[in-house]
Design brief:
- With about 240 residues, the protein is α/β, with parallel strands linked by helices.
- It is built from eight helices and eight strands, in the order αβααβαβααββαβαββ.
- The strands form two sheets. A six-stranded mixed β-sheet has the order 3-2-6-1-7-8.
- The chain is globular, with a radius of gyration of 19 Å.
């Protein structure tokens, strides 16, 4: 487990308040989905509805055990949300949090012309050392757009769509909508769980902190690991990371 940790208490969350009955704000818990074939191969996996591998399924179950240890009271009904994509929903179910609502705003970053391709592949086609954070999908040639079928090792045929994609700013705007959706629950003192994807959860974290979304590239988030965002002395902070 990595990251900075501190002991959360009612005193911490209510510091500065004259109202002893003030409700301590809830924590926003972020869980990345388990391993997929493409997360191992380095192929950009945005909106392609790829499933977990067997390893990814085991990772999801293990993540559920860690979360139940960290949050023994669980999450109240209406406080569980998952991306509309299969790998995130599988992870939520296998982790023991199947009673989720779908939150479209936490679908993964739309990589557009890079979808299903590695960084090396798109760099070769584009003729420059492409970087998703610096350059974004729309810097790649339009010739990469189209639809094709990838056959997974399991034999499943997976439709892949390459469109223009999203800028990081557009993805960040989506995550701000997601934060606005769950904020009333947090303000009411409920812990909230979001099960989604590496890039979108990192971008969401940047927006929780109120910083440029490009900051998210500095936040490593491994498969089936979770993070905790909270409030401390009036500021939105990272409480735990990549656990």
């Amino acid at each position: 487990m990595t990251g900075v940790h501190y002991s959360r208490s009612m005193t911490d969350t209510q510091l500065g308040s004259n109202d002893a009955s003030a409700i301590a704000p809830g924590r926003l818990v972020l869980l990345r989905h388990g391993q997929t074939v493409w997360s191992e191969s380095g192929q950009h996996t945005g909106r392609t509805n790829i499933p977990l591998t067997d390893v990814g399924c085991e990772q999801a179950r293990a993540a559920g055990e860690r979360l139940r240890e960290a949050f023994p009271n669980g999450f109240a009904k209406g406080c569980l949300f998952a991306s509309p994509l299969r790998r995130a929903q599988q992870t939520a179910q296998l982790a023991g949090y199947g009673d989720f609502e779908v939150l479209p705003e936490i679908a993964e970053w739309d990589y557009g012309r890079a979808e299903g391709r590695t960084r090396q592949q798109v760099s070769e086609v584009g003729g420059f050392a492409w970087d998703v954070w610096r350059d974004g999908p729309r810097s790649l040639p339009e010739s990469l757009e189209g639809d094709w079928i990838e056959t997974l090792p399991s034999g499943e045929r997976m439709p892949v769509h390459n469109g223009p994609g999203e800028t990081v700013e557009e993805a960040a705007a989506r995550t701000r909508e997601a934060i606005a959706t769950v904020k009333p629950l947090l303000d009411a003192g409920h812990d909230v769980l979001l099960v989604a994807h590496a890039h979108v959860l990192r971008i969401l974290t940047s927006q929780w902190l109120g910083v440029d979304p490009h900051f998210a590239r500095l936040l490593r988030l491994d498969t089936a690991h979770y993070c905790v965002l909270s409030q401390y002395k009036g500021d939105n902070v990272i409480e735990h990371w990549n656990c």
